[in-house]
Amino acid sequence: MTFRTTMAFRLVLLAGLAASPALAQENENPLPEKQAWSFAGPLGKYNTAQLQRGYQVYREVCSNCHSMHFLSFRNLSDAGGPSFSDGQVKALAASYKVQDGPNDSGDMFERAGRASDPFPQPFANEQAARAANGGALPPDMSVLAKARDIEGAWYSFLLGPFSTYQEQGVDYIHALLNGYSETPKGFTLPSGKYYNEYFPGHAISMPKPLNDGQVDYSDGSPKTVDQYAHDVSAFLAWTSEPKLNQRKNMGFNAIVFLIVFASLLYAVKRRIWAGLHDVSGTPIDHAAE
Amino acid sequence: MSGPSTYVPQNGFLRWFESRLPIIGLVHSSFIAFPNPRNLNYFWTFGGILAFMLIEQIVTGLVLAMHYTPESSMAFASVEHIMRDVNYGWLLRYLHANGATMFFIAVYIHIARNLYYGSYKAPREILFILGVIIFLLMMATAFMGYVLPWGQMSFWGAKVITSLFSAIPFVGDSITTWLWGGYSVGNATLNRFFALHYLMPFMILGVVVLHIWALHIPGSNNPVGVEVKSQKDTLPFHPYFTVKDAFSLVCFMVVFAYFVFYAPNYFGHSDNYIEANPLVTPAHIVPEWYFLPYYAMLRAVPSKLGGVCALFGSILLLAFLPWLDTSRVRSSNFRPVYRAFLFLFFATVIGLGYCGSQEPVGSVVVWSEILTAWYFIHLLIVLPLLGFFETPRKMPASITEAVLGPKGASAAMVGARAAAEPSVKG
Known about the structure:
Chain A is mainly α.
């Protein structure tokens, strides 16, 4: 009875909300398509080969403009990440020149990079980055995949909690990288901007970054924009959530444990309360025991 | 927590100790022998769940504080340091962030149960008012906690909420400057919010002790709303309610774990993964979900001061519920008209929450205004009048009768004499 009344009221409320046009806002941008990410869902895991390819795309293309403050070379050999070998990471870091110092005579000096060094910055400061990019600041990519979201339909807040799919930000990045097209007729593009279907407002400052054949994969994966976009989006998912494998693995164990524990407690509860709901039921008088 | 304890120390040391500090007796009478109405349903397990959540938040928060840096140029990076380099730092942070959400889910269920079963009525007014104080402290704590990661939503949320105080006539601007520790939200603000965010959970803990104390004087209300009349109406807290609370708590933890491990950022806002930037205003500033109904009320009133009054009034008014509700019947099960109005009230709050999450344009504004008006009409007009006009249903004579039926109640009376036989059901 109670439950039905509640539901009836909720339905009336929801129907009222649905009927009002402003709440069912038309989305100006098309919704990015859901991709089949290996790391989505309760048992999801990063694909090591994909992360390695994604890093290659980042290093050869994105890193020319986009910094990655919170990552160091050593992270590239972390478990659950691209899992390069320690030797590979050392060699990679050593291929960069890093400014260090001051030394004992007070001078800054250049040395080869070490695994513990952070990823090099493409620009010395924000002003330099803006000056080189027509006034726009390329965002730091460390947590970019978690800093982007997709606004779903108005009822999505009801469904969201029941979906383990949390890769909306990754989908958006993938869609954006594939979203460059000719400026449609009637759309006035400000100078120095590029048309992108998925970018809010459509006028993006970043020119189309990826083209077919641009990055030379060594593992035989297709050298297409879509493949690059997939790989680099997956890599950005990892940089923003590096402990995802550990989290999902632990979560599965924790939830199985809790469900078993709850079942046992329920059995104990049933036994302790047995008989108290029917006529014969009499509480045990603990004071008299 | 009230009256002399029935605890009997088992050995000489405990007798010696108990005669000097009767704390074991206190625990015994509060959490072991404490008589609870036997007909409590699972909605009564949320008190225990809330106590667990408070402790969980304090423990995870304590460890996070060891790794966090409350300095405006380092705060965001220190949170990322926790997520990346601290052992299980991601787990601690996700537990703490989602713990706040689960804390509020539990407290809203706890409050809804209170309203449905009329638990705020005499003799539990003080217990209820202490609950409202805890709720206010929780909101302040959660708000300040959300500022600490120093993301865009942290910064702009802090800016919007602290700016509310500037609506106070004459002294508003001075108060806002004083709160900020400067002329805008900045490092001084972050620092003091961190200090207060660390302090307030312990204030909550103190009020929780009073809340439990005030609960243990009259004892729990129950789904029937009839006071306990004899020992038959009750069961000792242990083992009956410890096991029931434990089962409920573990079920709650399954939901908690689901969010922590599988949707840890679902309740957050993606903009909070962008470091705070005073020069860039986010397209759409929204508070955490548990503040959305109040945020909608704030925006529904056209004047800033009026909005602030609606915001604070909506919560402070709750403290007067025991006197606004003129009916002497507690449980909604016996108040069909009140029950219908109460569900409408719940729907109003949910609707306000939805309006709060949307941009304030078009019908969202109209709906916010209608629902805000109804929120206050319900509390200030419907509740006082209903007590005079509504005819409640016939209530059972006692809790035992409600559980076992009129026949069962007399049978239980017979059974009570035979209770010494231990093997009734295994």
